[in-house]
Amino acid sequence: MPKVLSNGDELDVxxxxxxxxxxxxxxxxxxxxxxxxxxxxMHSEHCSYKSSRPKLKLxxxxxxxxxxxxxxxxxxAGVIDIGDGFALAFRIESHNHPSAIEPYHGAATGIxxxxxxxxxxxxRPIALLDPLRFGPLxxxxxxxxxxxxxxxxxxxxxxxxxxxTIGGEVEFxxxxxxxxxxxxxxxxxxxIEDFEHAPSKAYNPGDYVILMGGSTGxxxxxxxxxxxxxxxxxxxxxxxxxxxxxxxxxxxxxxxTLEAVKTGYVRxxxxxxxxxxxxxxxxxxxxxxxxxxIDMSKIFTREPGMNSFEVMLSESQERMAFIVKPEGLETIxxxxxxxxxAHAVIGRTxxxxxxKVKDGDYLVVxxxxxxxxxxxxxxxxxxxxxxxxxxxxxxxPEPIKGLEEIIYDLIASENICSKEWVYRQYDHEVGxxxxxxxxxxxxxxxxIIGTNKFLAASVGINSKHCYxxxxxxxxxxxVEICGNVIANGAKPMAMVNCCNFGNPxxxxxxxxxxxxxxxxxxxxxxLRIPIIGGNVSFYNExxxxxxxxxxxxxxxxxxxxxxxxxxxxxPFKKTGDDILLIGETKAELGxxxxxxxxxxxxxxxxxxxxxxxxxATWDFLFELYKKNLVKANHDVNKGGLMITIAEMCFKNNxxxxxxxxxxxxxNLRDDEFLFSESVGRFIIETPxxxxxxxxxxAKHLNVNVKKVGNLIANxxxxxxxxxxxxxxxxxxxxxxxxxxxxxSLMEI
Length: 748
Fold this sequence. Notes:
Helix content: 25-40%
Shape: globular
Largest sheet: 7 strands, mixed
């Protein structure tokens, strides 16, 4: 790690030698020790996106190309116009490194940070989602410890703020054993007028800069630089870089911020997350084309004797920076006094385009505002890993046990089993918005009060598919997550992503990132889904074991349902109804749970998709919805179609008589048909009287639809029409296996 000197002070930095030279050349002098610290955090990968920015330009300009997109990438959150005067904001971020060494506070402060991002858009946070990844739980106390306390951290913080956690996913894989992934997402709702009052930029010279919320302490210093390098055996020493959150203060910050925005006097708003004051002040002024004059003595600190370096780099939680019109200063201060929130006027903006920070008589920071907020990019090499050809060439072995036993094993496996142990710790119904409970739909559904609109949101990715083919895996992830909201009756409106990858300095790791980004960009352009924001988390790689995570470009989709009667849920409803399989099943078992659980294989042919067929399937479903022909819907993903059908039977204790004769290609083996994870498929329940009408619509849109059976009252699943023998499955046995796995592994 390089060292820099300033007036006899020495500092270890994560800057490269070329970056150090470039900074000195820009300033035509040596920076102060505080300025060095600010450059160190703002030029970190976490803040600057210096490796990823060139690739992220592949995403089309959402604000330019979609008239309902109000804010796109570069803002604290993406915002869309959903009609009736309402603006919907949402964002997803990572808190991986902190959670890997301090799972409770790492996860909790991740929730705190994402809530503040939504607040910065002037709207109320109304829902949380949490996609998580850990090492296998079985026989692994370390993974169990991380899992337990990450979930507890999210639950304790989210529950205390009164914001429901409406969805998420959990994936277990050996590659996440040391580098767990804790991604957090938040959705906010407000009026378009509220959003317009709170840009995350300081455009106007002469406005006041107000710091509101928690006090500034020594916790979290260098949190972003810690998150911009790989984990090593020394990473435990970075524990002080993990911040400590206070959800009760956050609740008051939410109310005080929203009331302040309503006054119309807030001209800019920024949360103090990664990089602290260094990031907030430089981005407000740099992006707004202004400068700032800050008096450090006005900043309220938690600990005595804090110097300018510590104050400017602290990442203490629960702090917000407001840019306020001069004529509204007292009004805003009165709002903060009303909520008993600590606050201070710490400076004013000016037209100098220079950020100045004074510590008494000393000018400790005197930097062009854009020098910090516009870091130079680094071109990275990319190379396809040599091991992929051998992995992809792996063949599916002949089944080593009966298909019934395989299905029972899969339904109880860690990635397929019930996640009720997780969501029962969350208050997923707090407030009056939640409509579809966790476990009863493929996405979380919320009512938008004052309208007949409902919001559906889902999040996730299949990292095993992305490991074999990041381009197709990322596209397949979009199909699945869009499919989740579509299964509940919603039209996908917009997407954000959280790209979790290994060390970008390693060409093979950067190749995964580059191809995943291209996959998302190509799919979204073709299917007309705007990408309105995202986050990149690199260096998810363990130096000790030399293990990088499987690529995880986590995708979040929001959609809108027009009318309560149009909401579709997952459980089967009525005996005698038809069970239809929509979409084509191919021999795509690469990266499947079948390969992983039964054979401990990671390779094979992973799913590939045809965007035109995906679009036709979606159009087909919306046509059925329009005519009220669908009573239940569940997309087919991990484990294949038999897992999907079983999960739909559980809630109402129904069974099914299935006949797969003529339902699949003669070239497919039985196990390939049953356990393939081909993307873009759905299982739907429909009334028998509507069968002919449904098939006519399918023929018109050229969509592959097969009737595979009917629902019965007896909780058993009878399967015939396979090439092998008939199968009988006990639904109650499957449900018990499905529900018991995580509680038994967590010793509950």
